[in-house]
Amino acid sequence: MAQAERECMRVVMFPWLAHGHINPYLELAKRLVAASPDDHLDVVVHLVSTPANLAPLAHHQTDRIRLVELHLPALPGLPPALHTTKGLPAHLMPALKRACDLAAPRFGALLDQLCPDIVVYDFLQPWAPLEAAARGVPAVHFNTFSAAAKAFVVHCLKNERTPTAFPFETISLGGADEDAKYTARLISRDDGTALIPERDRLPLSLERSSGFVAIKTCADIERKYVDYLSQLVGKEVVPTGPLLVDSSGSEAKRDGGRIMRWLDGKEPGSVVLVSFGSEYFMSDRQMAQMARGLELSRVPYLWVVRFPNAEDDARGAARSMPRGFKPARGLVVEGWAPQWRILSHRSCGAFLTHCGWSSVLESMAAGVPMVALPLHIDQPLNANLAVELGAAAARVKQERFGEFKAEDVARAVRSAVNGRERVAARRRARELREVVARNNGDDRQIATLLQRMARLCGKGQAVPN
């Protein structure tokens, strides 16, 4: 019997212009490409972004994962080097979104050149599925936030005129009115120049997704939130798994030796890793309170700090460590640090984190309890989810998000690393590690996504259900 002829499915992926979005898209691309040979279907992915974002990713390009440049229109004060959120001053974010929206015809021209079978797009570009539809191409929204956070925002937007309580009390920020107020702040960042109102981007992206929505999460952890999101949008929501990035090879080539040697000299479970993501910059006051709090905790700490490159930053970000600060109990690392290797080190006993979704997943994957200090966007919702799951051993008290005191930092860190609750917290962290590892290694989730995508574009009829 003749062997079934292999088909090719050409996929265009278009994440938002931030590495926190691009990295999950790239990892999903790798897994789709790796999954396809057994299914009589070869997948070729074209990952679209700006030159500023693609330059550091050049080594990921293969014959089946291709990086495609999208050149944004020129706008005053927004040179091509700033066509990325990395190092972008806060006041230029509306300009970046506007430039991206103005690039819709150029994206359409790329689709004409690439002739994809399907487009996978991010929520900030709700016009991408329209460009695809104009060419008879289906398009699917891939969400890189937690299902709990996404369901929360969609729920609040749907009930905007008459706020109703989010049906999961553990995720709520204090009842219907508080939830509505927080969501309103999230969508009120327009400066009057936006081509698409901020509040419309997510609903339109979900509405225009062809048939289903994909989401970066573990089904075993967020099943009820996946189901509720599906109910809200009236479409199937397909989990991809946590899409953990195996970056050990690239990290080994970078200067992490000093950090690992420092960790090697510490007792097992004695160190708290402190990091607030690659694109959040603390104010002078926040830096001062954090520095004092870490010293007051009397716990060894590894603090990863970042400062903006831009000369002008409307957020009032700190430019240096607090005057006179000398870390007596910790190691301060500026810029990059091998987060996964640190979390996996035997001396790492807790992770003081902003609760960005990727950091929450990495912490659970490493089996390290979190100390939650959410600052903005989806982070408070992720922090609530981490507490619900038992993944957070402690939470730093805040008057408002971003307003914390040194004494509360110290109290939360001590509790997580040396408190009576640490034994139960570490036991629960080990349980969650097994769950996340199982989901990350479950090829069936990617196979399901691949099957849904193939069905949309009439490819891979041999792909099993």
Automatic annotation (TrEMBL):
GO terms for biological process: carbohydrate derivative biosynthetic process. Pfam families: Glyco_transf_N, UDPGT. Gene3D superfamilies: Glycogen Phosphorylase B. InterPro entries: Glyco_transf_N, UDP_glucos_trans, UDP_glycos_trans_CS. GO terms for molecular function: UDP-glycosyltransferase activity. Its EC number is 2.4.1.-. Residues 9-161 form the Glycosyltransferase N-terminal domain. Keywords: Glycosyltransferase, Transferase. Belongs to the UDP-glycosyltransferase family. This is Glycosyltransferase. It comes from Triticum aestivum (Wheat). The lineage of its organism: Eukaryota, Viridiplantae, Streptophyta, Embryophyta, Tracheophyta.
